[in-house]
Amino acid sequence: MALQEVTSAFLKRFRPSPGPLQRAWTSQCRTASTAVVQETNELEESSFLHGQESAQQQIERFDPAAVARRRNRRLPPSRYRFRPPRYYRGPLHPHQPPKPSDPSSREFEPGPFSLPRLEQTYHDTLASDYMVMAYTHFPPGYAAPQKGERLRNWIGESPYYKNRPPRGPRGGDTLRLLRKPVTFRNLPQLERVTVHTMTKGAIGGKSEYLHVGGMVLQAITNVRAEAHDTKNSVAGFGIRAGEHLSLTCELRGEDMYHFLSKLVDVVMPKIKDWPGVKGSSGDNSGNIALGLKPDEVALFPEIEVNYDMYPPKLIPGCHIMIHTTATTDRDARLLLTQVGIPFYGKLID
Known about the structure:
single chain; 50s Ribosomal Protein L5, Chain: A; alpha+beta; five-stranded antiparallel β-sheet; two-stranded parallel sheet; 349 residues; 10 helices
């Protein structure tokens, strides 16, 4: 202590007296240091190390109803609560529907959640092979023959022919869709699949046939079946108007590809003495239909693995309509042949 006092006295003798600027600067530093110390003490008092309540106390104190009562304003509505108008009223209408990729859109479909093997094969292999099989070579200087008018005019001297609209083509009044040259822009592809069944055992109010049919369709398609009622009564078959006798499932996307994969790879090879789909099947617009009997529907793996769940006498047959983007039955048949569906008999385009 004596040494420190001597040293401080010696330094005071040779240290010059502080000026007004130095004294002001020193007071500011002391004030700032005092403020920092006070803030530090406040932080230390509010630190998580002091006064932390346990998890059980937080659970007991949690009361969402009380929080909602204390809130003096309404929460903003969620964007997913918006429902676009049911009908599209044109591009100039103030309310425009969102894009199909928006979750609030009526056309929104979640997914894809997987990559079906059939879809991947189509984009990797079948699409390019289809262009090769549908290619038509025309040498240089080739001129396409002139085609007649699709609608025929009324030719004659009858006064009734004047200002009369043209008549349809020969053989019927329905115009077929025009076939454009196949390019990479309009390659036919699978659009959707419709699975339909008519449970005639449900006539007369026997609902067990309808329930089992709906369970079977839902199991093999992964889509909930929709029941349809009859519009008119048919006394000869004992059908009354309003009875639910038919079921329908519409498959798109992943469900469609998975269903066709099971149909081609599992079910069709197990059918004994099955020649294939008739070559006359089609609606002249690129849609092909085929049918399965009840014992053939039971070959689906979802039914076969749990066969005891479905009474054999109640399992219905079904009709399968495969919708494609092709405009002719020939193009649709070529696409389904690539997928693995065989055709037999006379091919009618």
